[in-house]
Amino acid sequence: MVSGTELGRRVDSRRLFALTAPLITTSDGKKMGKTAGGAIWLNSDRLSEYDYWQFWRNTSDEDVVRFLKLFTELPLEEIGALEQLKGADINKAKVVLADEATALLHGRDCLKKIHDTAKSMFGGGAKNKKGGGGGAQNTDSLPRIAVTAEEMEGDGVRFADLFLRLGLASSKKDARRLIQGGGARLGDDKITDDAAALTLDDFGDDANEVTLRAGKKRAGVVELEK
């Protein structure tokens, strides 16, 4: 910044000013703006609306009120009421934070679909063993990628590669660590081998998509193009 102001002065003799602000960190001292899958992008083609919502929903208990003040346009009186929530009820404040932050960026029209997806995926709704598209789950808001039948022939495509392509891991090493740590699932089935691959058999006879899960709150869809 200092170099930039000096360059401006030399180019046209204008006096320029550089403004700085304190770095925003979480309560544990970490810089905000990162997830296990990488950077938080504002463009929905780089980060799905659902994943953006989940980023805010996963805010820690200690940070939620401060972030409501910093990143939403809610009246302070309303935030003050949310500040009184304790225990499990504080999750209501996190949903409000996620809703308001997402609405500012993507509009409110996407919120119902996001809520339906979150409830379907993680709210105890009907489950499909392999995560296929049997109609029990609403996956519309989840990030998704497409694979072709040709890609899936033979040994298939490794799960580590799919987690990376979906943005559920920041690198292949991170994807393997996720699998080794027991946090990776195909539908409701735990993936235990970091060299395992998704094959055509995993889609079933009448399903054209499967759901991969990373931990408790993140998921993505692999769609089969036939």
Automatic annotation (TrEMBL):
Tree of life domain: Eukaryota
InterPro entries with a match to the protein in the record: aa-tRNA-synth_Ic, S4_RNA-bd_sf, Tyr-tRNA-ligase, Tyr-tRNA-ligase_bac-type
Signal peptide: none
Entry's Gene Ontology BP terms: tyrosyl-tRNA aminoacylation
EC number assigned by the record: 6.1.1.1
Transmembrane domains' residue ranges: none
Top enzyme category: ligase
GO cellular component: a single term: cytosol
Gene3D superfamilies tied to this protein: RNA-binding S4 domain, Tyrosyl-Transfer RNA Synthetase
Recorded GO MF terms: ATP binding; RNA binding; tyrosine-tRNA ligase activity
Reaction catalysed by this enzyme: tRNA(Tyr) + L-tyrosine + ATP = L-tyrosyl-tRNA(Tyr) + AMP + diphosphate + H(+)
Annotated family: Belongs to the class-I aminoacyl-tRNA synthetase family.
PANTHER family referenced in this protein's UniProt entry, alphabetically: TYROSINE--TRNA LIGASE, MITOCHONDRIAL, TYROSYL-TRNA SYNTHETASE
Protein name: tyrosine--tRNA ligase
Organism: Odontella aurita
